[in-house]
Amino acid sequence: MGKAHGLGELPNLGPKSQAMLAAAGIASLEQLRRLGSVRAYRLVKASGANASLNLLWALEGALTGQPWKEVAREHRLSLLLALEAHEGDA
Known about the structure:
Layout: H1 15-23, H2 29-46, H3 53-64, H4 68-74, H5 76-89
């Protein structure tokens, strides 16, 4: 799979992640930035993809330039709280 509208140039997002984003209707870097990692993750999950929380860490890392493992270690709680807050809004 080729680089889709800049998404392939981001760290942490391989072909499977890019395919899940595309299936959720997220086709550009600008769109991903507008949505943010939590909303993008929720859209991927809502599309029926079997995405783990590693995708959330990868999305946040892609947007901030951090390795996903660092995001998982340092920002796990804040991302999980944000995800819970967004799920409460649904």
